[in-house]
Amino acid sequence: MVIVKQARHPGPEEMTLVAVMGALSDPIRVGLVRVLADGRERGWGELRAPVAKSTLSHHLRVLRDAGLTRTRQEGTRCFVELRREDLNARFPGLLEAVLEVARGDDVGAHVGVADDSNRT
Amino acid sequence: MVIVKQARHPGPEEMTLVAVMGALSDPIRVGLVRVLADGRERGWGELRAPVAKSTLSHHLRVLRDAGLTRTRQEGTRCFVELRREDLNARFPGLLEAVLEVARGDDVGAHVGVADDSNRT
DNA sequence: TAGCTTGTTCGATGTTTTACGAACAACGAA
DNA sequence: TTCGTTGTTCGTAAAACATCGAACAAGCTA
Questions:
Q1: Going by DSSP bridges, is the β-strand pair B47-48/B42-43 parallel, antiparallel, or unpaired?
Q2: CATH number for the domain running over B24-104
Q3: To bridge B24 with a disulfide, which of A21, A102, A118, B63 should be the other Cys (CB 3.0-4.6 Å)?
Q4: DSSP conformation class of A69
Q5: Residue A102 C-alpha from the chain's centroid
């Protein structure tokens, strides 16, 4: 029996505006959200940010705790995705507005994904 | 000649998403924005928040520095207003989305205005 | 089993934020 | 000029945050 201790994710009702705004008040985290904005689930190790991995882990935790992302564990690795549906239901229009500006201003420019040469 | 040292306000181009999100990641500041959301300019002394006046001054400064509000000085007193136009131009949809949630969740509930008995 | 990979957690450090009261500066009123 | 009012700034303290490297746990792989 495989018990993979999944991290806790807040339900929509548990999400707070202040926590979400706080999560998005750091350029690296905004960059991560931008990367995930295409709706694709990304492997943790695929994510690239100019910080140590422990720090990246921290940022992903802040995003998860605020309800912005969902982290799934599979074996020894993790996959992250944006909780777009939940966010739109709980905070209508907010995510789109933020992404729009983030793209325009290129916020979190140094965050990206590895150019994974093993798929298309 | 009256030179009232006006505080510096960032122009729309100087406003950053991260600063705005940071400014809105505190319930008192969200409360202040809510109070100002009706478009009326408010006297500083009219504002009520459960913090010392030096702390309120600090919060108003954070909002001003982020570009959310404009502070005008007249004689010995100040008036604050929301920079709705500028915000909508710079961050389309953001303010409305935030206000919508803030109202629904009653964020910053302890912030308000004095019940000014000298009008209506 | 032994070792490798992957991501989290721990401990330390330096910075930023929030908060308060006291001191201050600017202005208007007496 | 001497007060009172109004809001900012200063000094300080506590908490939160970002960051790192080291240690760790869990799961594959050899």
A1: unpaired
A2: 1.10.10.10
A3: A21
A4: E
A5: 14
A29, closest residue in chain B (CA to CA): B18
Token pair for B61:
């400064």
Subunit contact B25:A30, Cβ cutoff 8 A:
no
**A-chain residues within 8 Å CB-CB of B34?**
none
Could you report the per-residue pLDDT of B28-59, keeping only the tens digit for each?
Answer: 999 999 999 999 999 999 999 999 999 999 99
Task: Give strand letter and number of the nucleotide nearest A7 (CA to C1').
Answer: C8
B26 touches chain A (CB under 8 A): yes
Judged by CB atoms within 8 Å, which residues 57-116 of B form the interface with A?
Answer: 90-94, 96-98, 100-102, 105, 107
Angle CA B45–B47–B48, to nearest 5: 115
Tell me the pLDDT tens digit for each residue of A29-76: 999 999 999 999 999 999 999 999 999 999 999 999 999 999 999 999
The answer to whether domain A12-105 has CATH 1.10.10.10 is: yes
